[in-house]
């Protein structure tokens, strides 16, 4: 499939809402009342890796988009402070936890099964090198440093029975293990970051009542964004021009804030998103 739409090159091939399509992406941040606080438009790099499931591609993009979005937000609103960040499991990534902790924001993020596959965890030898989960006598193979914009550097280790080969000018992996611990074609990979336990060592236990109550508030954000989509009729929109699409989103969010002001002034501040009630 082409990597962008013929009608608009800005609409990139992306996996979203359970299927592939051509989309313009933006992130919308709300507070716990569902009120829009920030809109950030960004482009996909179209790295649709063949060894990832479509859902993994989406989760990977969500994880990478958080830090740039929040950086933009705090640059625009340097005096804003928050105690918690509520996000779904798509944001479950080491770098996001490290970033939020540095901002003194407690992450309320559910664990993503993509990052917890139930695979046996490799041990470590006296030099800090991870070992094969099935045979601890075999140290994993160092494969360099992974560096990506907006993410912490990670040391990459490969399965000791995996090697890279050049096949018709293309780099591929050859796995000689008779009993692999993963279905990946390149065997087990272990990426190590400096603070790779942030995901599990949360300041607030995920099974605590307070954590669960806070996490349930995340649905307010989902409902708010669904409402904004409804404002601009996103499911039936025939608009293809990038500027027009962005304008529609911005105007819809502005309309939400104006509606909230009217609701508040009318004495119905206990129902900040009851826009249908206001209209009726």
From TrEMBL:
Name of the protein in its database record: Transposase IS4-like domain-containing protein
Transposase IS4-like domain residues: 57-255
Highest taxon of the lineage: Bacteria
Species this chain originates from: Soehngenia longivitae
Signal peptide range in chain numbering: none
A Pfam family it matches: DDE_Tnp_1
GO biological process: DNA transposition
GO molecular function, one term: DNA binding
């Amino acid at each position: 499939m082409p990597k962008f739409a013929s009608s608009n090159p800005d609409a990139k091939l992306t996996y979203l809402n359970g299927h592939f399509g051509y989309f313009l992406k933006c992130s919308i941040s709300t507070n716990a009342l569902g009120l829009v606080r920030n809109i950030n438009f960004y482009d996909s790099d179209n790295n649709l890796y063949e060894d990832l499931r479509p859902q993994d591609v989406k989760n990977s993009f969500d994880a990478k988009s958080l830090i740039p979005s929040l950086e933009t937000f705090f640059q625009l609103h340097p005096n804003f402070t928050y105690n918690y960040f509520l996000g779904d499991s798509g944001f479950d990534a080491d770098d996001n936890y490290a970033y939020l902790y540095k901002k003194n924001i407690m992450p309320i993020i559910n664990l993503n099964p993509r990052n917890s596959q139930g695979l046996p965890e490799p041990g470590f030898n006296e030099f800090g090198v991870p070992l094969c989960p099935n045979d601890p006598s075999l140290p994993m193979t160092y494969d360099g440093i992974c560096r990506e914009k907006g993410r912490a550097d990670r040391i990459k280790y490969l399965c000791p029975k995996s090697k890279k080969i050049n096949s018709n000018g293309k780099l591929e992996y050859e796995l000689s293990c008779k009993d692999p611990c993963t279905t990946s074609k390149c065997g087990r990979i272990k990426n190590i970051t400096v603070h790779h336990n942030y995901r599990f060592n949360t300041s607030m236990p995920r099974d605590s009542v307070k954590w669960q109550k806070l996490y349930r508030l995340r649905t307010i954000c989902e409902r708010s964004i669904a409402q904004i989509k409804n404002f601009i009729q996103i499911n039936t929109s025939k608009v293809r021009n990038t500027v027009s699409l962005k304008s529609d989103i911005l105007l819809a969010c502005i309309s939400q804030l104006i509606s909230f002001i009217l609701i508040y002034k009318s004495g119905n501040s206990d129902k900040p998103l009851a826009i249908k009630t206001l209209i009726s």
